[in-house]
Specification:
Layout: H1 2-10, E1 20-21, H2 24-27, E2 52-59, E3 62-70, E4 75-83, E5 96-97, H3 99-103, E6 113-114, H4 117-122, E7 140-144, H5 154-159, E8 166-170, H6 171-192, E9 201-208, E10 212-218, E11 221-229, E12 232-240, E13 246-256, E14 266-272, H7 274-285
Antiparallel strand pairs: 1-2, 2-3, 3-4, 4-9, 5-6, 7-8, 9-12, 10-11, 12-13, 13-14
The chain binds 2-acetamido-2-deoxy-beta-D-glucopyranose (NAG) (2 copies).
Length: 292
């Protein structure tokens, strides 16, 4: 009993079950680029504060990617993943949630759970979005950060369908992002990089939170600041070419709100260096922000 109490105090009772983790480095370092000088794993900037949770996204017994999640805004800030080439696996998967964000650590929460309405009733969903928040979002769709189309296999593709990997995105902005960022990024990687299981490209895709929110219902009360609507989506890749040099590029797209019917969202996309993106993000987050 004493030993158990001590172990609990030290937080070592379920060391291998902790998927909402203190640091990405300890639990799922494989999704991050190593610093060229120190050779240490170097995740993107971890925003400070209790509202930001590191999730090693686990599904069917394996880590699939990593996400920095904001439990106050109920959206991810970024997802980091390895890309082995576009496999175009057919769309498959129900939307899931991360029980540990709401229930804390329990052994049965080792993996993301399939979302089902019955289970949905049981979680308070205080710290994350749930499926029926999105129909209330009107014009906004669930914009994937790690896209289904970039998954290496069916299980990884399924694992992208979790609400901790999605944020509100206007339908046309979602389509433009797929066409003008994801497709073009793949073309570039395909032509310039080695890209397979041994030499993956590393990609980080994220958002910049805004001041507009989707209202949600919790316990029969309306929360006006429910799910945050990002002002920007961004993405950057880093890969190795056949001469073993690092290549990278970044993209930033602004999502301009036009809630009025029949008015298209403006989608301003730019293609830039990673350093340019980092400097833009530093301005937008009002703190130093590093991607690779
Ligand atoms: C990005 O810009 C560079 C340089 O202007 C250009 O060579 C490249 O094709 C562009 N890539 C995409 C995906 O737009
Ligand atoms: C990955 O690509 C490199 C370079 O094209 C090649 O040498 C290597 O054999 C490939 N590995 C696999 C597992 O396909």
């Amino acid at each position: 009993m004493k030993l158990l109490a001590l172990l609990l105090l030290l937080g070592v009772v379920y060391p291998s079950l902790n998927e909402v983790v203190k640091s990405f480095k300890a639990k799922c370092p494989e999704f991050f680029v190593k610093n060229q000088h120190s050779h240490e794993v170097d995740p993107p900037t971890l925003l400070k504060g209790n509202q930001f949770k590191c999730i090693c996204q686990r599904w069917k017994g394996k880590y699939r990617y990593a996400t920095l999640y904001d439990i106050k805004r109920r959206i991810p800030i970024y997802s980091a993943y390895k890309f082995e080439g576009k496999k175009d696996i057919p769309r498959n998967g129900n939307w899931k949630t991360e029980p540990q964000l709401d229930e804390g650590l329990k052994p049965e929460n080792r993996e993301m759970r399939e979302m089902r309405p019955a289970q949905e009733e049981k979680l308070p969903f205080k710290n994350q979005a749930r499926n029926n928040d999105y129909p209330r979002a009107g014009a906004y769709t669930r914009g994937h950060l790690f896209p289904n189309s970039y998954a290496a296999d069916a299980d990884q593709a399924e694992s992208t369908f979790t609400l901790t990997n999605a944020a509100p995105q206007m339908q046309d902005s979602n389509e433009e992002w797929a066409k003008k960022v994801e497709e073009l990024m793949w073309e570039e990687i395909k032509h310039n990089c080695m890209v397979n299981k041994t030499f993956p490209a590393y990609i980080v895709t994220g958002v910049v939170p805004g001041n507009v929110w989707v209202a949600i219902e919790r316990e029969r009360r309306t929360i006006t600041q429910g799910v945050n609507i990002p002002t920007h989506y961004w993405s950057a890749y880093l890969c190795i070419n056949s001469a073993s040099s690092r290549l990278s590029r970044a993209f930033l797209a602004q999502q301009i709100y036009e809630i009025k019917p029949n008015r298209k969202t403006q989608f301003k996309k730019s293609n830039m260096t990673v350093a340019d993106l980092e400097s833009k993000l530093t301005g937008l987050f009002k703190q130093p922000f590093r991607v690779f």
